Amino acid sequence: MRVSIAGAGAVGRSIAAELLENGHEVLLIDKAPTAISVERVPMAEWLLADACEITSLDEAALQRCNVVIAATGDDKVNLVVSLLAKTEYGVPRVVARVNNPKNEWLFNESWGVDVAVSTPRLMSALVEEAVSVGDLVRLLRFSHGDANLVELTLPPESALAGTRVGDVAWPEDTSLVTIIRGPRVLTPSAEETLEPGDELLFVAAQAREEQLEDLLSVRQESSGT
Asked: What is the pLDDT of residue 19?
């Protein structure tokens, strides 16, 4: 897979190194000469250019990319790069970094963004995830379909503790993608039984999040007779 990354700062270089380790082809683009540090990521291609300019993106052959990542520290630049990548070059997957949470509402399909990654929001979500049991935590927003990656740690009192995955009537537009149980990462087969303390990761429509949280919450008290 060929990936172009706009922004060769610490974030861009880290992403590039990870992708290269996984066997992908990576091009780093930055307009600042001081950011071109080939020795830090020697296996990547490097381009000294302004990623907001069509001529630069032509030189980068963006039409050959499977993914473009807008990872600069400037939200305006990331939006322009995303829009150009999607509308001018038809890049299938565009991922954009959101630096200021106040700008998050802009990072959607209207600007060519498939996935928006807000570092402040993600850090906040990870803090919540570490201390919350039984509460739904939104980790990542996907622009297409208004879906989110959400997490919930199953409390011991949950009505679904001990239930097989295949026996649960999950809400519409919701998919259980992973179960994290201690050090293990499990593929949620229909026969897998949900256990208290399981970290459950879902891709779910935002409109279904409350319904999903209710489903996984503590047992309802039985009414007396």
From this structure: 93
CB distance 179 to 206 below 8 Å: no
Q: What is the 3-state secondary structure (H, E, C) of 39-107?
A: CCCCCCEEEECCCCCHHHHHHCCHHHCCEEEECCCCHHHHHHHHHHHHHCCCCCEEEEEECCHHHHHHC
Residue 200 has pLDDT above 50, yes or no: yes
Token digits of residue 139 = 């980790």
Domain 1-117 CATH superfamily: NAD(P)-binding Rossmann-like Domain (3.40.50.720)
How is residue 156 written in tokens?
A: 């011991």
User: Contact, 60 vs 89, CB < 8 A?
Assistant: no
Structure tokens at 224: 């007396």
Does 144 score more than 70 pLDDT? no
CATH of range 131-214; options 3.30.2010.10, 2.60.120.280, 3.30.70.1450, 1.10.10.10: 3.30.70.1450
Q: Which two tokens stand for residue 79?
A: 């939006």
Q: How much is the pTM?
A: 0.63
